[in-house]
Fold:
Amino acid sequence: MAQPAVVYEECVTHESSWDADEALTAVYTAHYTSLVRLGSLLLRDTGSAEEIVQDAFVAMHGRWHRLRDPHKALAYLRTAVVNRCRSRQRHLVVVDKHTPKSLPDEPSAEQAVLRTAETDRVIEAMRTLPEKQRTVMVLRYYGDLSEAEIADTMGISRGSVKSHAARATKSLRQLLEQNA
Amino acid sequence: MNDQNPNEQFDELMRRALRDEAHRIEPADALPEIRARAHAQRRPVARRPWLLTAGVAALGTAAAIGAFTVFNGNDNTANDGDAVAGPGTTTSATGVLPSQTPSVVSPTPSPVPTAATQPPATSPSSAVKTAGPTDRGVPEQSVSSAVVPVYWLGQQVGVPKKSAAKLYRTWAKVSGHPAEEAVRIMTTKQPEDPDYYSVWRGAAVNRVTRSDDVVTVDFKQLPKTDLDPDLARVATQQLIYTVQGALQDDTTSIQVTQAGRAVQKLFGQVDTSTPLGRAQAADVQALVWITSPSQGAVTGSKVTVEGTASAFEATVNYQLTNLKTRETKKSFTNTMEGQKFSPFAFSVLLTPGQWQIEAYLISDADGSVTNTDSKTILVK
Structure:
C-alpha cells in the first residue's frame, strides 16, 4: 500500500493554479505562430523552425511545474528556440561549405512573388551577416526585445549585444545603400 | 533613404521588412501533435483550477498572456488583419508615419500571408504519432489488480458544519476497470473510517470511458439529493479526484453523464453540461490526512504514522489515546515544507491494545483545532 501512496502523493501535494496542459494551450495560442516566425527568420527554413518550436513546447510542457509562470515559459521557449536555431544554423554552415548550392532557404517560386522588393533587399542583406549578428538583429527588430532580453536569450553579455548590433547595422546600411 | 532621420528610418525599414517576411509564414496548427508528444513523454503533475472547463481555461489564460506579450501584438493570430494590407497602406496600418513609406516599394500586390500559401506538407516529420482525437471514448483497460485511491467527505472540526466537508482519501484494492471500481466503492460502500462519508450513496456507475481530452463517467443513476452549493462542489470533486486518481491522470476533465446524456445539475447545483476540472487541493482536500496506518490496522508495538498536511509553519500536532486505559501521548511533528501539502511522519512505541491516533492542526488565530484526521488501530 505504501508504494502507490508515495507516488501518488507527489502528484497530490503539487500545487499550481494552471496545469501543464492549460499552460501549453494558452502559451501555444498566444505565441506559437510568432515563435515559428522567429525561428524561420533565424533559420530561413520554416519546416525546421516548426520542428524546433514544437520540440521547445514539448519541453516546456514537461517542465511547467518548475516554470509555473507564462512569462517564464515564454522566456524559456524563446531561449530554447533561439539556441536550437543557432546550433542548427552552425551545423548548416558546415554542411553549406560542402554543398554550397543546396541552401534550405531558397524561397519557393510562389513565395518569391509575394515578397516586396524592399523586404527582399533586407532579407538578402541579412543573409550576409554572421550568425550572431543576424540573431541579434532578428530578436531586436522582429522580437522587439531589449538589449538585456537579447543578452539573456542568447547567453551573451549586453556589451556583445551592442557590438553585434552596431556591426550588423553598419554592414546592412552599406549594403542597402548600395542597392537602393 | 537620405532623409533627415537615417537611424529611425533604418529601424523602421528593418522592423517592416522582418515583419513582412515573418508574416509570409503561417504555420499549420500543431497543438494536437505537441500535446500528444508531451503526454507521451511524461505525465504532468500540475492541475487545473476549480471548475474551469478546458476550453474556457484556455481562452482565459490566452487572453491573459496576450496582455503581456513581448512580441509585436500583430503576430498574435487573432490580429493578423494588417498583414494583408498592400504596401502603400502597410505603414499607416501599423501606426507609422506615412512619410516614411519608402519610394522603392514595388507595386507588387502585397505580401499576402494566407494559410493557403503554406502547403500542409511543411509539417515536420517528427510529429508522426499523433492520432486525431477519437470521436468515441474507449473503455478503461482491465487489470487483474490495482490499488486505487477512493475519496470521501469528512466533517471538519471547529468550523460551521455544512460547508466544511473536505476530501479524505483511502486506498482500495480493485480488479477490473480501476476507475469504474473506485467509483463503485465510492458510491456503494461504507468507508472503513467512521468519520468519513459519501453523499454519492444510491448512485450507480455504469462505465468510465476516455477519449483524448475527456474522461466520461456514465451513471445508470445519479444521486438525487440536493445539497448546498459548497457541499455539492466538494462532493463533485470527490468524484473527480477518485476517477483521476484511479486513472493516474490529474489533468483530463471529467464529463458526468447519466445513461449517456449530460445532466443539468448534479446535486441540484453543479452544472455538468460540460466537462469538469479538478479543483486545487487546498480548496477541497482536508488539510491533514493520516495515510498510514489505515483504519482498523493491526500493528506491532512500534508504530510509524505517516500523513500529508498543509500546515501553517509546518506543524502537525498529534495525540494517541489508548481507548481502554486512556493513556495518552501528545506531541507534534513537522511536515517537510510548510504552507503546502507536504508529508509528515512520526514513530511511537505503543503498549498492546486499541489506540486512536489523531493528527490535527491548530489555528494560528485562536488556538482552536481546525483540521483533524483520526485512525483507530490495534497494537498487538
